[in-house]
Amino acid sequence: MKADATHIDIAAIVPALPRGVRLRFDESRQQWFLLGPERVFEPDEIALEILQRVDGARSVEAIAQELAAAFEADRDEIAADVMAFLRGLADQRMVDL
C-alpha cells in the first residue's frame, strides 16, 4: 500500500510570526495589518481570525479546531484552508512553519 504523500501531521506544525513580522491594529485607520520587512498585508476577517491564533504555541490542528468550533464548520475543511493560507504566507516569509 502506498502512503498518502499529501498527508501532513498538522498537530506537529506550530506556526509563528518570524522576527521582524508583527500583527498590529492601526487605531487611526481602524484596520489590522500584518507588517513585515518591506511588506504590509491587510488581512480580511478570515485571515485575521487565523493570524490572531498564530502565537508560536498553538498547532495548526489546534487553530483549526478553535475555528471549527467558533464558526460551526467542518474541522477538516478548516484545517485544509488554514494550512493553505499559512503556506502562502510562509512562501513570502511572513510566517514560520
What distinguishing features does this structure have?
3 helices; 3-stranded antiparallel sheet; disordered N terminus; 97 residues; Arc Repressor Mutant, subunit A; globular; alpha+beta
In short:
37% of the residues lie in helices and 14% in strands. It has 97 residues and is of the alpha+beta class. The protein has a single domain (22-91), classed as Arc Repressor Mutant, subunit A, CATH 1.10.10.
Please give the largest β-sheet.
3 strands, antiparallel
Element-by-element helix/strand order: EEEHHH
Spans of 5+ residues with little confidence (pLDDT < 50)? 1-5
Number of strands: 3
Sheet-strand content, in percent, reads: 5-15%
Going across the major beta sheet, what is the strand order?
1-2-3
CATH topology: Arc Repressor Mutant, subunit A
Residues in helix, %: 25-40%
**The top level CATH class name:** Mainly Alpha
Total of domains: 1
Q: Per CATH, which architecture?
A: Orthogonal Bundle
